[in-house]
């Protein structure tokens, strides 16, 4: 049985006439009559009958109209329960992020949410291939994802994309490396170095490929390391260079991070979520605080 049809039956019972019920529902009497006829087809016994020129309810129709009151009350409770869930500041929020973002932002985000009296956070880290980030929104309210800024965008038809940060990717080398003696770095200065790259298919593989394209030849990738803090430790030995993020790399006096003067390499860091997640007050609050903690330091 259709809920709208039950409401029409209830209005007929309470208002006593088809025209009064139609006026209350802001419909024409013929439209109400058609819906009541459709409701009748779902019932095994007559629900209405003619009493003179007036349409009246049978005993079965009256019983169903009374049951419609209970249905309306249950729907109202359900709608209010959903609204309370959406507006509750205490509803837990599940956030996941790739490793370097989790390391940089989970601690201050937890502190900021606690200071603001925000909702409980459920944090997790995920090291996934670029194409797998959108799938994580099925299990998490907010997914912090990254991709090369020059690469393909996220599939906006399936996820909501909230830009978080455009982060420069810098050439990292040891403080004792011969490159440290150069005042500036250009692609030609680093093209013949042994490199650390991420595994194929992972988000920043395209960033290193941009350097190779600018150099006009393949780079010598001697290590495949996804974890930036592991890559940084290897760079500190002086035996390889890498592209590391400007704002989320943990400071290390053994490292020097410098931009390429003739090539701007960046990654886009975005928050992915299902569109309905942003209807929740607690999710919006966490997203606002995430923006605050992820903001790059003032120059």
Describe it for me?
- With 299 residues, the protein is of the alpha/beta class.
- The chain folds into 2 domains: 85 residues, Arc Repressor Mutant, subunit A; 202 residues, D-Maltodextrin-Binding Protein, domain 2 (3-Layer(aba) Sandwich), CATH 3.40.190.
- The strands form 2 sheets. Strands 3, 4, 5, 6, 7, 8, 9, 10 and 11 form a 9-stranded mixed beta sheet that branches.
- Strand 7, helix 7 and strand 8 form a beta-alpha-beta unit.
- Helix 1 crosses helix 2, helix 1 packs across helix 3 and helix 2 packs across helix 3.
- The chain is elongated and about 105 Å long.
Summarize the structure.
With 299 residues, this protein is α/β, with parallel strands linked by helices.
Write the SSE topology.
Elements: H1 3-15, H2 18-25, H3 29-41, E1 48-51, E2 54-57, H4 59-87, E3 93-97, H5 99-115, E4 121-125, E5 142-148, E6 160-174, H6 187-190, E7 194-197, H7 205-215, E8 220-224, H8 228-235, E9 241-245, E10 255-258, E11 266-273, H9 281-294
Parallel strand pairs: 3-4, 3-5, 7-8, 7-9
Antiparallel strand pairs: 1-2, 5-11, 6-9, 6-10, 6-11
Helix pairs in contact: 1-2, 1-3, 1-4, 2-3, 5-9
